[in-house]
Amino acid sequence: MEKEAKKLVPLRFHKQIYVFRKKVSERMLTKKLWNHAIELKKRFILRKEKVYLLSREEREEVCKFIEEQLKKGYIRLLKSLQIVPVFFVKKKDEKKYMV
Prior knowledge:
two-stranded antiparallel sheet, mainly alpha
């Protein structure tokens, strides 16, 4: 696969081609000093977002995505009670993509 990538990627970027390896892409970057929790102001008011019903397949896809990202360490469970809606958008190829 790396040989194929070298054909597609301009020569000046070959030193960074390793970042596209599957193993490298599935690990979290090392923790930096500037990583920190986001503290909300005391006057912050939680907003109830509108609930969009998902099909069974969409719910399964969201759950699978969350599990994979937690396992890789890309995301962590939050202390915050604020929620964010998930949407599926139909593209020209008729597939739905999560946004």
